[in-house]
Amino acid sequence: MDFLKPYAALIESEIHQLQLPGTPETLYAPQRYILSSKAKRVRPILTLMAAGMCGESIEKSIPAALAVELVHNFSLIHDDIMDQADSRRGNATVHVKWDASTAILSGDGMLIQAILQLQNLPPDVDYKKINRIFLNGINKVCEGQASDMEFEDRLDVTTDEYLEMISGKTAALIAVSLVMGGICAKADDEKLEALNEIGYSLGKAFQIQDDILDVIADPEKFGKRKGGDIYEGKKTYLMLQLLEHCNKDDKNWLINCLKNKTINDDDVLRIIELYESYGITDEAKSVMNQFYAKAEKALQLFEETKYKGDLSKLINFLKNREY
Question: Which residues of 120-157 are buried (b: 16+ CB within 10 A; e: fewer)?
Fold first, then answer.
């Protein structure tokens, strides 16, 4: 995606210039560590694009873009602790390289650093408005994470509940990234609502797509084994749709697997076959495409610019990704 390189280079340059103190080392070294790892920087790039689409210099939105990236990395540090993950972006996770207490504190510090970045916005940006959008978005991410954790012990989760959960956990920060860029450009309420729609639609499409790729993607390209979500008993969109639409015998068998947490290789193969026989994968693809279509429709509100073109290219790339 060569068209994203100028945006990514600008973000990387700004991250490199962040004034993170040298001491206490256990607070700031983990922050520098995760920020230096290879990352796509999609969220801050969206902030820059949104500002550009709304007629403002993208440089004006840099503090907001940095705030989004810092809070995203804060959430990754804490997510890795909750998931007991050993690696992130090909490197050891912060709590593995240091310890859980250090990871929690450094993550907390990154949240503060993110909020402080908003202090660097130009004086003509509505600070109160952008701060409210930012903090409400972070809270929605936390709500989504809490719901996802609660789903682990429930067998009656509905697809509507799932969509609400990913609206928070996955989509909220994407929407915030775009809306903050619009606020930096003093966009009117109609454009801010369109940016919000683009963000939420992209986030939900992306997550459902991940659920699909878990069972159809090349494991080497996707970065995890086929059916990894099934092995873990995750309540993905596909799993919940299967529970809602399969016959009684298949449902009883599936519930028993999930309840006892005894999903083996043969079970995973059978579940993938059930996805196909009940048309679950195709239905999920249809819903995914509906969300991508909503994002593309909302994008039509904006005038033709390089930034709109680049966001359109990004949406098209995401829609057609295979891993």
Answer: ebeeebeeeebbebbeebbebbebbbebbeebeeeeeb
Written as six digits, the tokens of 10 are: 């600008």
DSSP state, residue 3: G
Tokens representing 193? Answer: 């609502």
- Which of 224, 204, 218, 228 is CA-nearest to residue 284? 204
Distance of CA 24 to the CA centre of its chain: 30
pLDDT for 219 beyond 80: yes
Q: Distance between CA atoms of 114 and 77, rounded to whole angstroms?
A: 14
- pTM value is 0.95
| Cα distance from N-terminal residue to C-terminal residue, the chain | 14
> Cis bond leading into 122, ω under 30°?
no
Is there a contact between 107 and 27 (Cβ–Cβ < 8 Å)? Answer: no
Query: CB of 270 within 8 A of CB of 197?
Result: no
Structural domains for the chain: 2-127+134-310 (1.10.600.10)
Residue 92, helix vs strand vs coil: strand
Q: Is the pLDDT of residue 223 over 80?
A: no
Residue 123's identity, in one-letter code, is P
